[in-house]
Recover the amino acids of this structure.
């Protein structure tokens, strides 16, 4: 069941007020990741909680590589645990810690139980066999800096990119509906033979996890500094199950 819309006008006025305050740029005051329906504000800084969502699970395997036989749901869980292990000093929450199915809307509800937190949802991709490289999806203004850092971090580890989309602003249930900064990461294409073999290597997944954790630490330390101008606020309804697949 999609989230019900909260007050339509109050967040708008709040967002407008926050945006006018933010015109001073990235060197402004510390910005907490506290709950915010729209997220039309700079990215978080000084947050202490990281919710790590391993995409898919249980009856939903996600993408399955015809090159290595690996299932997205297993790789995402492995990555979630690796990222958590790299985040000493943060409070970390795994959305799932075993092979169970959790509906996307339920993941949003669970993420919204936390205030000063960010959500990262880990996935691997599938598409035409020539496409490879990591991609990062965000929608909220307050998730742009984080998303930029994640994409840079994964690209720094990925040896080759080919026709992949890089950083993408897209309204998905896990990028639009949570009330905290939230980003969806695609760690690579399981449909590309070379990238599927790379992702099958635990050493490569560890490098990816380290890079992702490092991006989180940097964001917590300096906020959006160095991630470029904020995107414009978008007023669109929550994403629904009938929207594009995640
Ligand atoms: Zn996925």
């Amino acid at each position: 069941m999609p989230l019900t819309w909260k007050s339509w006008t109050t967040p708008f006025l709040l967002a407008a007020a926050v945006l006018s305050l933010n015109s001073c740029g990235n060197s402004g005051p510390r910005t907490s990741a506290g709950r915010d329906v729209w997220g039309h504000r700079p990215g978080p800084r000084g947050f202490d909680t990281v919710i790590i969502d391993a995409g898919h699970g249980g009856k939903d395997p996600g993408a399955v590589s015809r090159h290595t036989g690996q299932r997205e749901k297993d790789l995402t869980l492995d990555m979630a645990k690796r990222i958590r292990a790299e985040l000493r000093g943060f409070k970390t929450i795994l959305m799932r810690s075993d092979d169970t199915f959790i509906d996307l809307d339920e993941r949003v509800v669970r993420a919204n139980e936390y205030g000063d937190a960010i959500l990262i949802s880990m996935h691997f991709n599938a598409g035409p066999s020539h496409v490879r490289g990591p991609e990062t999806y965000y929608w909220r203004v307050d998730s742009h800096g984080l998303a930029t850092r994640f994409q840079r971090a994964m690209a720094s580890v990925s040896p080759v990119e080919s026709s992949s989309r890089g950083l993408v602003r897209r309204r998905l249930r896990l990028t639009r509906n949570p009330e905290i900064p939230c980003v969806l990461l695609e760690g690579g294409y399981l449909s590309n033979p070379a990238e599927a073999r790379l992702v099958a290597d635990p050493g490569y997944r560890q490098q990816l996890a380290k890079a992702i954790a490092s991006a989180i630490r940097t964001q917590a330390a300096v906020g959006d500094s160095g991630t470029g101008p904020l995107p414009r606020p978008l007023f669109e309804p929550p994403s629904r199950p009938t929207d594009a697949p995640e």
Notes: Confidence is low (pLDDT under 50) at residues 1-28. Residues 55-56, 62, 72, 123 surround zinc ion (CB under 6 Å). Residues 48-222 form a domain with the Aminopeptidase fold (CATH 3.40.630.40).
